[in-house]
Amino acid sequence: MKPVKSVTIIDDPQAHEDQHVHAVYDQIASHFSSTRYKPWPIIAKFLSDLPTGWIGLDSGTGNGKYLPLPADRPGSVLTIGLDRSRNLLQIAQHAGSEPGCLITREVVWGDVLGSGWRSGVFDYAISIATIHHLASHDRRKLAVQRLLQAVSPVHGRMMIYVWAIEQDELSKRSIPASGTDGSNHYPITGEDVFVPWVMSQSQHTAKGKFKNDVPSSATSKEVASAVPTLVAETPVYNRYYHMFAKGELKQLTVQAAKEFGLMVGSPESANAKGCRGVEVMQEGWERSNYYVELRRWVS
Amino acid sequence: MVRLITHNLLACHVKGCTTNNFPLVFQDVQVELQVAEFNPDFIRNMLSRLEWTALVNAAKQVGDTSLPPEQPDMMDDELLQKLHHVLMEIHVTDGAMVCQNCNHIYPISNGIPNMLLAEHEIG
Ligand SMILES: [Zn+2]
């Protein structure tokens, strides 16, 4: 098991993200991308179910692995990828290209807390493994509100994925145990951690499989003593994550929606015409992540 | 890449810039044409998302004058082909987009538009 390290955020959340998220992804972009290529099944299904002609936003697109989807109807929808890391965007720009056949994707360099779009212009928005990099509850809430704002008030669909404290046994990571037992304390708070990323040239050649995580308690000296010298010079980058507790993602989205002026529930729950709301279509845990699917509606 | 389909969605988001912040105006652009597969159903269904006049003007700014000034009621195959070309095959690789209201400049380089704002510009 590869432990992650608990962290307390003492500096400004934005400065914390700049140092422990944005700078890290720009450094590790191509190595990171080579290990991230499989779409999550629930998101693939979400994208497959979209009507032809819909336009969407992938907020925090990373290497753009969702931009070519749906695989069974390529080109039936258009997903625009937004990310804070320019180096990842350069990879995302050609996501899904085969050798000799370069396909160009639409990507935008921007912040998930920005709103550089006409309001409500998108039919759908996804935010996969992104909001957990924001270093305060208010910033995570604002990120959800930016998604609510980006999609159509009438039919906009959203899918949000974040890392869970509850990790499955296949995961390489173990999480420090501390008071987050999933019981219904209010408010539900997750865990702030650093997840180490090891840049390793030598491991690039090792059977095409990457070993990216080492115990974060290990100093570079200890790593050096355990493995060949080449690795001794490879830097370790600590990525910041807020790992979500059970129930926290739904609580966050409901709070974000209410403070955004939306009712939360089914369209039938509205008691008047012209009310604006959002419905939680599904929520759950899949392979160490929590997800929630939302739809906006007008009664 | 900034294709015109993307340009038609983007708006200025500088703090306080909430009127006349769309469309952004292309400036000093370099354009590249890339053939894309024609999907008439996609074009037909997505058209209602677009602001027609903004599209026609943006196309002119990148040197394409094939679209009629008013959106026709009937979409025949010839018009869908033209729209496909304008929306999906013209790539702005370098240059900038400028807000007509606050004059903020959003640079484009290597096909990637920079919509990041400085801390004090964020609304
Ligand atoms: Zn402006």
UniProtKB/TrEMBL annotation, chain A:
Pfam families in alphabetical order: Methyltransf_25 (PF13649)
Transmembrane portions of the chain: none
Stored InterPro entries: AlkB_tRNA_MeTrf/Diox (IPR051422), Methyltransf_25 (IPR041698), SAM-dependent_MTases_sf (IPR029063)
Cleavable signal peptide: none
Residue ranges constituting the Methyltransferase domain according to the UniProt record: 57-142
GO biological process, one term: tRNA wobble uridine modification
Entry GO CC: cytoplasm; nucleus
Domain of life: Eukaryota
Molecular-function annotations in GO: tRNA (5-carboxymethyluridine(34)-5-O)-methyltransferase activity; tRNA binding
Keywords: Methyltransferase, Transferase
Protein name per Swiss-Prot or TrEMBL: Methyltransferase domain-containing protein
Organism field: Suillus placidus
TrEMBL record, chain B:
Source species: Suillus placidus
Quaternary state and interactors: Interacts with TRM9.
A single GO BP: rRNA (guanine-N7)-methylation
High-level lineage: Eukaryota, Fungi, Dikarya, Basidiomycota, Agaricomycotina
UniProt similarity note: Belongs to the TRM112 family.
One Pfam assignment: Trm112p
Name recorded for this polypeptide: Trm112p-domain-containing protein
Chain segments annotated as coiled-coil in the UniProt record: none
GO molecular function: protein heterodimerization activity
